[in-house]
């Protein structure tokens, strides 16, 4: 996605030790009344060419967001297809 630095959005996600890690939000989208978010870590070493993209289903409750890992293979395939479409659309 070609965005200006000032337009980037971030989210903090706790790791298994409770440490908050900063991620850049790449895309947010809805499919069949479910909300999804795709993020990349902001602490990518300079020698890595590409960052790993993480996908979550999420629910909002006011200003709080609860993330859920995607366990179902069919749901994952759907999210991956949307990601590839968005990535192609915004990076052509």
TrEMBL record:
It comes from Tepidibacillus decaturensis. InterPro entries: UPF0473. This is UPF0473 protein U473_03165. Pfam families: DUF1292. Signal peptide: none annotated. Belongs to the UPF0473 family.
